[in-house]
Amino acid sequence: MKNLNFSVDDFLKEQDLHTPDEKKNQYFESLILPLRESFEMEIKKIEEEFNFRKNQIINVFPPGSYPKEVETFLLFHIKYNELSCLKVKCGLRARVFDQIQNVFNQNINIDSNASMTAAAAAAAAANSTSPIIASNINKQHSLGKKKRKVDINLNRWYEANNNQPYPMYSDKIFLASISKISKTKVEEWMGNKRTRIKKKTQTTPNSKKPKKETTKKVSKKK
């Protein structure tokens, strides 16, 4: 449970939701500010509710010597409330982070190559040490490392559930939180994985039929 992540900043960093244009970054931050503030406020309320329930149990049963059955029941009850709290937090995270991703895609995410001027493109092509090229290379390398981490997390789940590789909503939101991606990205990854596996199983290598041995008739010389 320690790997579950509810930080907006970590999500933005992991998903590389920023551009070289600082003005666009500031505009993006202004667009998602209401989402960020409401999300952080809701997370705080959920955690306060859990602490309230936990303290209620502790107040009714202050520290002391209790039968083992009672202690087991109390620990189970606290753990149940904790898991319920995490489930609500993960559901909230999935909804809000999907919205943040959509805001970026619809308002900010413009292909850097398309936005380059002809002069900048020519300069970049002429000079292999161009800051634009260097920035793109570093960005691709960073995204590659992040993608490998995501693949590891999601592949573990897929291999453990390969007989029924359709994660439930609760699975999706937990996987999204652990991998620091949106629920939509989890759904896309799982769909692509199932498609690849299906194609792999359907396309069996064309085994060449063994040629029939033809016995040549040798004509005996008279």
Automatic annotation (TrEMBL):
Keywords: DNA-binding, Homeobox, Nucleus. It is found in: Nucleus. Residues 191-222 are annotated as: Disordered. Residues 154-200 form the Homeobox domain. Pfam families: Homeobox_KN. Signal peptide: none annotated. GO terms for molecular function: DNA binding. GO terms for cellular component: nucleus. Residues 156-201 bind DNA. GO terms for biological process: regulation of DNA-templated transcription. InterPro entries: HD, Homeodomain-like_sf, KN_HD. This is Homeobox domain-containing protein. The gene is hbx11.
